[in-house]
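Newbie here. two chains, one complex. Structure please?
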Amino acid sequence: MNTIPMEYYLLISAFMFSVGVTGVLIRRNAIVVFMCIELMLNSANLALVTFSSFLGDPAGQVFVFFVMTVAAAEAAVGLAIIIAIFRNKLTVNIDEINIFKW
Amino acid sequence: MINEILNSITFIYPELAVSIFLLIIVLVDLVFHKDKKYIPYISLAGLVITGILVLNQIGITHFAFVPQLSAVKKYGMMTIDPFGSYFKLLVVVTSILIIFFTIASEEVIDLKERLGEFHALIYGMILGMLVMISASDLILIYLSLELLSLSSYVLAGFLKLRERSSEASLKYVIYGSVSSGLMLFGISIIYGLTGSTNLYVINSLIQGPQINLFTLSFSSILMFVGIGYKISAAPFHFWTPDVYEGAPISITAYLSVASKAAGFALLIRFIQTGFTSFISEDGYWTLIAVFDWQALLIAISILTMTLGNFSALWQDNLKRMLAYSSIAHAGYILLGIAVLSNQGLIAVLIYFFVYMLMNIGAFYVVMLISNKTGSENIDDYDGLGAKAPFLGVALAIFLISLTGLPPTAGFIAKLYLFIALIDANMIVVAIIALLNTVVSLYYYVRVLKHMYLTKSEREQENITPSIGSLVYLLVLLIPILFFGIYFTPIVEFARSCVSLLGI
């Protein structure tokens, strides 16, 4: 474990986070957007676990369990909302979900 | 260990009461699934009990849930202090008003079968807000923020057969999860820098010289994204008008007052306990020189109020206009924090109390009218002053108060804000805020013009509100007019509630 330096884990975490943010910004399918949001949460989880392991402090790993639970709840709510909007509009493309304009 | 937990439980009675009543509502919903008309009264009873428990806590200053195993044993995961109790009281009173709001709202009455879920979700929001207000640990902050957000996503889309409601909900859930994801990444960096999730420990650690300033500023900004989305501050406000327009009106009113109040309480606690090194005798906070919160807050608040006010100018839907107006109000309130002094904090507390009364009142009148006409378009308000005299006068008073003109309480709220700004020598900012108030006058008065000066093209029946609605409106109107003239009581109460649990 300690043979791999901390920077490697953090770089992967930062990369995953960037992929997640980019995906949210450019993808137009609501379900893919949700997958990218999960990627963002998981990159934060990886960072937390890394810090926790290298600091020798269990709080970060406890936090990760909570984040995983929240991510599951968020996915459940998000998918339910996507189903509700699919029944109304027969599409999950974000560009076509545009009643509201300013 | 067990003693500490048992001892801490005595400090979280309001949260426990809310959790118990949440379970009771779910069970009653399951057992008596034929007859659901009692559920609103059960949730009212629960809120009254919670309110009494919060009132008992006012004046107490204490840590709850202090970890026994860690090296730093002084600081707990939750802080009970007068500042938190003030905001908890505000949230509970708002919730009581909103339950009465839903009893009169046709949209919610039509739900019938799903009334139990509706109230259970409202209780989920209340629990999230109460925990968020007193949380002083990053884990608890994240969890309570998510509890609040998840319940409000569902509530925003509760009218699932209505296309607008589902769309509002989808936009809310996407914006919300992205910003909470950014916030979580910020939390993970702060944890990596300091090795602790407790705000008090973080405060003492970032005063040391070995902290990387750039990383800390980056993570602070990421944290601010999560909070800024909750309070709908400017670059993160895009969800607000859409969600407020699409959600059921009762939920719109609730989101615009209660969840915003909880977000502001979290922001104030985060800055005050996380980044303040000491508070001088005349009440000015000196921040640790790691991140210039004042510049960030001033820039964001000016942007927020200007965008909110100017976008509200050409809105024809009253709900959408009030949404932009609530963004502008968030900008004013942020200025109260940007002063970074106890006087600014008093102004924020007063502002929120008044804002609760006038904003819920304005939404209530809009709801009563849309119950009758089925629309919130400004053209349907033509000639309303003659057809519904009481509603017209009530809406006029609420809107004048939202503008901040005397003799209403809205004037007092803005007055204290400007006094705090001028005392801190932020004259230019005060002038910008004042000019913004002038802009806001246009769109509020535009509604009055439609009500009193424009003749309606269509024939409409008179709108007479029920006795209950009359009483409800009077309950909101009398304090607005009374505190506009005699405001010492709220100022004194706010002054007694400014103290946060210190460093």
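Moderator note: The interface with chain A takes residues 138-139, 142-143, 146, 150, 153-154, 157, 160-164, 166-171, 173-174, 177-178, 181-182, 184-185, 187-189, 191-192, 195-197, 241-242, 245-246, 311 of chain B (CB under 8 Å). Residues 292-503 of chain B form one domain. Thread marked as resolved.
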